[in-house]
Amino acid sequence: MLVLAIDTALEACAAAVLDTETTALLASESQAMARGHAEALMPLVERVIIAAEIGFAALDRIAVTTGPGSFTGLRVGLAAARGLGLAADKPVVGLTTLSAFAAPFVAEAGAHPIISAIDARHDQVYCQVVGGNGNMLRRPQLVPIATAIEATEFGAPILVGNAAHILARAWPQDAAAPVSISPATAPDIAWVAWLGAAADPVKAPARPFYLRAPDAKPQPSAIARDTPPSDTASAT
Question: Burial code of 206-228, b = ≥16 C-beta within 10 A, e = fewer?
Answer without folding.
Answer: bbbbbbeeeeeeeeeeeeeebeb
